Amino acid sequence: MASVVLAACAGNGSTNPGPLANAPKVIMDSDFNTMGDDGQLFAMTTQLMAQGKVNLLGLTVVTGNDWLLQEQADALKAVERMGVQNVVGVYAGANYPLQYDVASIRAQQAANPNGYFGAWSRPEPTQASQLIAPPDGFATSTKLQAQNASDFMIDTIKRYPNQVTIIEVGPPTNLATALRKAPEIAPLIKQIVYMGGAMAVPGNANAVGELNWWFDPLATRTVLQTTIPQSVIPLDVTNTVPLTESVYNQIANNPSKQNAVTKAYATTNANAFATNTHIYDTLTIAYFLDPTYATQTKSAYLDIDTTSGEDQGHVMVYPGQPAAGASPQKITYVTQFDNNRFFNLYIDLLTRPVPVTMP
Length: 359
Prior knowledge:
Elements: E1 6-7, E2 25-30, H1 37-50, E3 55-61, H2 68-82, E4 90-92, H3 102-111, E5 144-145, H4 149-159, E6 164-168, H5 173-181, E7 189-195, H6 211-215, H7 217-224, E8 230-233, H8 235-238, H9 245-252, H10 260-269, H11 282-289, E9 294-304, E10 315-318, E11 331-337, H12 339-350
Parallel strand pairs: 1-5, 2-3, 2-6, 3-4, 6-7, 7-8, 8-11
Antiparallel strand pairs: 9-10, 9-11
């Protein structure tokens, strides 16, 4: 199957000439899905690329929402769907967290039957025949880049010192791995914008942990402890940005704007608004474009519980002085968003024509 075959080379955003040369450079590090929040974010980002507003240098994938093999297939189809397969490369990263205890994870699942545990909730696929095709089928020609995600991050950050933002919307295992391999890249990263963590609200995995940071708390702690400028979109704000039936219909059921993205969106998110679904990863790109999308923020020194058990993924927030092991600087996290303004952007970008045309 094309979706799991390695390729030695394919286009990627790092070589984009013309208008994109001066556009803000990003790497999207994602536990990818077809048209859930990660897939939506990718579609939005490539539309922004077509407008010359963002230069997406690459899409790196990591186990989180699903297992790596499935995410690779979904990501390869996504670049093909958007028509950017010769511009944005897909790089496979970590299949497992830096540190995990399967027995503890199973105990947490039993104790939190309504928790969201991503990949751990389903069997790990080991071959292409076990993968689930996106609604519009697997990629037909697009192949994975041969380079590992963490090595791609290292090389790209060194190629563009102080220019690359990491849009971190999965467990940060790939980024932590890159920092462990090449700690010298830390001062060269412009910033990190996460979707992750739960500061003063309950978790969505166990009672205290949000999935992305719960999934690999050691990786999260590794990155928090650096001096890289960091901003966080936590559950505290995503819980206040619901996917409504009106928003869904403006994307899925607008007869004049039907395309491959809106059709995949309709299939993936059908009735999501009836199950209290909220908007997650897509807030990151709005905040990256313009931090004034956030109408309320707080800042604090942050740390995270890396122990296995019911406290796994619990974020410790220190508004005044940091405790030992916390981030060495205050980190901004968002608590309120301009929902109306965001949804205007969200609906617009998800209903634009595809495939996109690069500037």
